[in-house]
Amino acid sequence: MVGLGPKHPPSRKGSVADIPQDLLKQIKDFEDEFTVNSATLKKVVDHFVSELEKGLSVEGGNIPMNVTWVMGFPDGHEQGTFLALDMGGTNLRVCEITLTEEKSAFDITQSKYRMPEELKTGTAEELWEYIADCLEQFINSHHENEKVSKLPLGFTFSYPATQDYIDHGVLQRWTKGFDIDGVEGKDVVPPLEEILKKRGLPIKVAALINDTTGTLIASAYTDTAMKIGCIFGTGVNAAYMEKVGRIPKLAHMNLPADMDVAINCEYGAFDNEHIVLPLTKYDHIIDRDSPRPGQQAFEKMTAGLYLGEIFRLALLDLLDNHPGLIFNGQDTSELRKPYLLDSSVLAAIEEDPYENLEETEELLERLLKIKATPAELEMVRRLAELIGTRAARLSACGVAAICKKTGMESCHVGADGSVFTKYPHFKERGAQALREILDWAPQEQDKVSIMAAEDGSGVGAALIAALTLKRVKAGNLAGIRNLADMKTLL
Ligand code: GLC
Question: Hexokinase C-terminal domain location, by residue (predicted)?
Answer without folding.
Answer: 227-467
